[in-house]
Amino acid sequence: MQNLLGLQKLLSIPKDIVITSHRNPDGDAIGSSLALSHYLRAHGHTTYVMTPSEYPDFLEWMPGAGEILVHDIEPEDCDEKIKRADIIFCLDYNALDRIDKMGETIASTDCTRVMIDHHLYPDEFCDHMMSDITASSTCEMVFDFIEMCQDKPMIDKTMAEAMYTGILTDTGSFKYATTPKLFRIVAQLKEIGVDDDKLQDLIFNALSEKSLRILGHCLANRMEILPEFKTGIIWLTKEDYEDFDIKRGETEGIVNYLLKIKGIKVAAFIHEQPKITKMSLRSKGDFSVQEIATKYFKGGGHKNASGGASFIGLGGTIRKFKNLLPEYKEQLDAL
After folding, report:
1. Alpha-carbon gap, residue 202 to 106, rounded angstroms
2. What distance separates the 2 farthest-apart alpha carbons in the chain?
3. Of 188, 208, 218, 241, most Cβ neighbours within 10 A?
4. Where are the alpha helices (DSSP H) in 149-271?
């Protein structure tokens, strides 16, 4: 963290603080934001957690989730609080274009900005930056931040559950990006009182009947396996979204089912939206889908979990993705 002492001095007096995270917030975005909010409120600060779009339903159990402000729904209120803030925290994103119009408002402020993030290639738009691409999650980094502030004894069960949620979801239940340090942190969260059986149930056993039917449709009718490239693709059309009345968050995790197939090392979930085609990419081992997302689909993320988008339609996007796989065949054959 650049100039931690300066930031601690700022935080020594109660402030109005806005905590922001990226569009389509996931467990790490919401977990890190709420954990930091609870911590700062314990120090007497006034905090507002803010995201560009709504969070998925499976996170609604989290204490404080009901107070999250959504810029898509309340743009004027959000912009007013951003302009009034003394400090803005930017969690789980490293560029203002990740938060859409909210980023334009933040860019126009002259308050102190703080980034806590674990993605590659951060933009330098903050006064204080905590960037660690080796971290499993931003929640792991929030734990580190609290520890750096010498406040680890302040971490209560509510903060611990929020951090554990982000770690659990961003590591795919400890399948990706794990380190000995991470497990030491998780052990401490357990000692504070986290009931991991309960959290696993709340997070992963919260599907609606409709979500399960969408998954069935994807696996039965929208899946293609390319064994020569150790790759699987699932796609959804605009008509699928209409037929199933698919809402935000109801396709969460579908891409991961492809990696359950023996021999599959790369997974792509490509879905057609009204004006854009989006994609989620996952991989196993030392194959970087982050490179594909950045180089070809105006996206980014992590080595084994990234996303992107295109404006050439669903069919064009699928063809483009398939056509670039031969470029990576030698790498895939080595896996």
Report:
1. 33
2. 60
3. 218
4. 157-170, 180-192, 196-204, 209-221, 238-244
How do residues 145-161 score in pLDDT, each as one tens digit?
999 999 999 999 999 99
Collect the ranges in the chain with pLDDT lower than 70.
1-2
Please give the pLDDT value at position 330.
Answer: 94
- Could you tell me what percentage of the chain is helix, strand and coil, using 3-state DSSP and rounding each to the nearest 5? 45, 20, 35
Cβ proximity of 258 and 267 under 8 Å? yes
User: Rounded to the nearest 5°, which phi and psi values hold at 114?
Assistant: -130, 125
Query: Can you give the pTM of this predicted structure?
Result: 0.88
Strand segments, DSSP code E, in 21-103 are: 46-51, 69-70, 87-91
Domain 4-204 of CATH type 3.40.50.10420 = no
Q: Which fold has domain 209-333?
A: Diaminopimelate Epimerase; Chain A, domain 1 (3.10.310)
Domain edges within the chain = 4-204, 209-333
Looking at every residue in the chain, the average pLDDT score rounds to 94
Q: Which region, left, alpha or beta, applies to residue 101 given φ > 0 means left and ψ of -120 to 50 means alpha?
A: alpha
| Short-list 14, 7, 106, CA closest to 51 | 106
Q: What type of residue is 12?
A: S
